[in-house]
């Protein structure tokens, strides 16, 4: 049996040629280093050295004091429809938190706000919250202003209160956002982040046939594998290398661990009904009266989902059905290689020669990322691509 280390987040996995997905000197959510710094000097949300909008990233929040189930669809967090300019993206969890005001409703937040919100609103466990958030922030955020969008990059102007001129976001394809999502189409087909009705019908069909009308771990394992085969067969640019090979399995677990009402116990636990699923995935809304998970939760079942149909990272190299393994950036069974390659190849490709506040903040965020690995970092030394201070 394959040994899989998932820290409390658990992850291991995969590969990909960083040169292909992360062209050096080019894509920081489509922004240049100069734009990141300019965004800081135009921002009015910051405070800290390096321009009015630059900020020293504060340490990540720890776990909340109360970690049991509680009503989260409460009076202080009413659901509200998006206003013109509000940003939403590929993550149903973050979309829901923004639409209920656990995150700024405009969809632009700091890593600190995201970690607090996923813990408070969903009881996501602290290590996973920190790891996921700093991965996203390093790949897609603006390290200078310490802000990231939960969707596409922000336009120059925004709703009240005005936000920094440009902030990157998690819809950026090939970084965190990737192929084979359950309810979002692959970027190749034109829209990589919106709720896709046809894919949701497939989600329901699998749940009806294999879960008796519910999404549970059996459904998760089969649908996850099916979506990968489906994309290998119809997306010539299909790629699940590097970080994506980890997130595929973690994200298939979240509907079981985080979208099921925390009061469902015993035989009812771990089964997500379709009305609730639609509420999260499509409406970005807690089911009426929703209670968050009864204990800190997250990617725990991901190894089980992976083990049902083990896959290798790779991509279609010459059109559909040309899937070719590529484990150069580690694998789900080799977390240390994943971490090491992410820092020394992927991130270094995105930020070849950072200086000043950008370099300082990258180093601070890299420390936060390494610390989030917890037990997962055992025997895996920290990598310092930009020196140690
Ligand atoms: C901790 C901060 C988080 C970040 C930065 C984040 C980011 C993302 C991103 C970038 C994706 C798109 C990946 C893709 O499918 O291409 C995604 C998908 C997803 N996220 Fe999150 N997420 C976070 C927390 C959460 C939470 C708390 C939940 C659940 C309560 C959640 C549930 C999901 C699910 C179910 C998907 C898969 C959607 C699908 O396959 O259709 N996420 N997330
Ligand atoms: C992914 O979605 C974002 C946000 O809408 C968009 O800016 C980007 O162009 C999309 N990427 C691809 C490759 O479709
Ligand atoms: C999912 O639900 C189906 C149908 O009730 C059941 O046969 C299966 O054992 C369930 N899987 C899990 C992991 O509970």
TrEMBL record:
Q: Which GO terms describe its molecular function?
A: metal ion binding; peroxidase activity
Q: Where is this region: Disordered?
A: 36-68
Give every Heme haloperoxidase family profile domain span.
Answer: 75-307
Record's Pfam families?
Answer: Peroxidase_2
Which UniProt key words apply to this protein? Heme, Iron, Metal-binding, Oxidoreductase, Peroxidase, Signal
Species, as recorded:
Coprinopsis marcescibilis (Agaric fungus)
Names of required cofactors: heme b
Q: Which Gene3D superfamilies match?
A: Chloroperoxidase-like
Q: Which domain of life is it from?
A: Eukaryota
Q: Residues of the signal sequence?
A: 1-21
Query: Per the similarity annotation, which family is this?
Result: Belongs to the chloroperoxidase family.
Q: Where is the composition biased (Pro residues)?
A: 55-64
Question: What is the protein name given in its UniProt record?
Answer: Cloroperoxidase
Question: What InterPro entries does the database record attribute to this sequence?
Answer: Chloroperoxidase (IPR000028), Chloroperoxidase-like_sf (IPR036851)
């Amino acid at each position: 049996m394959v040994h899989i280390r998932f820290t409390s987040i658990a992850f291991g996995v995969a590969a990909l040629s960083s040169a292909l997905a992360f062209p050096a000197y080019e894509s920081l959510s489509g922004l240049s280093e100069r734009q990141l710094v300019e965004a800081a000097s135009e921002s009015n949300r910051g405070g800290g050295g390096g321009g009015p909008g630059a900020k020293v990233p504060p340490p990540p929040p720890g776990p909340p004091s109360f970690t049991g189930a509680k009503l989260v669809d409460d009076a202080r967090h009413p659901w509200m429809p998006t206003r013109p300019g509000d940003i939403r993206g590929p993550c149903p969890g973050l979309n829901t938190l923004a639409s209920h005001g656990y995150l700024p409703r405009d969809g632009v937040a700091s890593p600190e706000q995201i970690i607090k919100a996923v813990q408070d609103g969903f009881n996501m466990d602290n290590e996973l919250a920190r790891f996921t958030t700093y991965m996203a922030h390093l790949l897609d955020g603006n390290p200078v202003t310490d802000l990231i969008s939960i969707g596409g990059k922000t336009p120059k102007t925004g709703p009240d209160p005005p936000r920094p001129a440009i902030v990157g976001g998690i819809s950026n394809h090939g970084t965190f956002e990737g192929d084979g999502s359950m309810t979002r189409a692959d970027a190749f087909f034109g829209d990589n982040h919106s709720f896709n009705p046809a894919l949701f019908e497939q989600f329901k069909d699998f749940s009806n046939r294999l879960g008796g009308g519910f999404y549970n771990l059996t459904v998760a394992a089969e649908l996850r594998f099916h979506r990968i085969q489906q994309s290998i067969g119809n997306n010539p640019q299909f790629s699940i290398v590097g970080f994506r090979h980890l997130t595929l399995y973690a994200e298939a677990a979240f509907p079981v661990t985080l979208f099921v009402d925390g009061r469902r116990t015993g035989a009812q636990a771990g089964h997500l009904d379709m009305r609730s699923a639609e509420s999260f995935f499509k409406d970005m809304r807690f089911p009426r009266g929703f209670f968050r998970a009864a204990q800190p939760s997250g990617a725990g079942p991901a190894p089980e989902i992976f083990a049902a149909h083990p896959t290798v990272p790779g991509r279609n190299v010459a059109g559909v059905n040309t899937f070719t393994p590529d484990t150069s950036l580690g694998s789900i069974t080799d977390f240390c290689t994943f971490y090491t390659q992410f820092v020394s190849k992927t991130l270094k490709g995105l930020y070849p020669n950072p200086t000043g506040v950008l370099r300082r903040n990258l180093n601070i965020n890299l420390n936060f990322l390494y610390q989030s690995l917890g037990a997962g970092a055992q025997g895996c030394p920290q990598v310092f691509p930009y020196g140690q201070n």
